[in-house]
Specification:
156 residues; mainly alpha; 5 helices; Four Helix Bundle (Hemerythrin (Met), subunit A); 63% helix; single chain
Length: 156
């Protein structure tokens, strides 16, 4: 499998896992402020990295105050943004050096592929925190492991 096809698959998983968490958070019927904040951070950070890759200005703060409905809308928009971005890439373009500034104004340069991997790993990390919060609050978290999505043919 080519690198670009692998990233398409990982971002398909990312979208599916985000959707599953939204459904789980909606179904609890209780407020889980830390989880809502972490989920808002996931979608804001994904948008931020897409903007950096596309040399666009930052839209949202790194830790925004989003409602779950806003998160849902952002997840759907991100699906299309990442899909379009990845369709325009090639294995060679993944080696491109991207120059950007972080939220502290510090300048960095990383390969596009490293940024894409970071997006997936970062989101997975915070989804794990949300799963732990759901479990601690007495709710059954969704089963969002990558291998589960593969076994069930839930991603491309």
């Amino acid at each position: 499998m080519s690198d670009i096809r692998n990233f398409e698959r990982l971002f398909s998983y990312d979208h599916w896992a985000n959707q599953q968490l939204i459904l789980a958070l909606e179904s609890t019927g209780v407020s889980l402020p830390r989880s809502f904040k972490a989920f808002a951070h996931i979608v804001s950070a994904e948008k931020l990295w897409w903007e950096r890759l596309n040399l666009k200005p930052q839209t949202y703060p790194v830790w925004p105050e989003f409602t779950l409905a806003k998160c849902r809308a952002e997840v759907e928009e991100l699906r299309e943004l990442w899909k379009t971005y990845l369709m325009a890439q090639s294995d060679d373009s993944l080696a491109q050096q991207i120059h950007y500034k972080n939220s502290k104004g510090e300048s960095f340069t990383n390969r596009a592929a490293d940024i894409l991997e970071h997006v997936i790993i970062h989101s997975t990390h915070h989804r794990g925190q949300i799963v732990a919060d759901l479990r601690a609050a007495g709710h059954a978290p969704p089963y969002i492991d990558f291998i589960h999505a593969v076994r069930q043919n839930l991603i491309g």
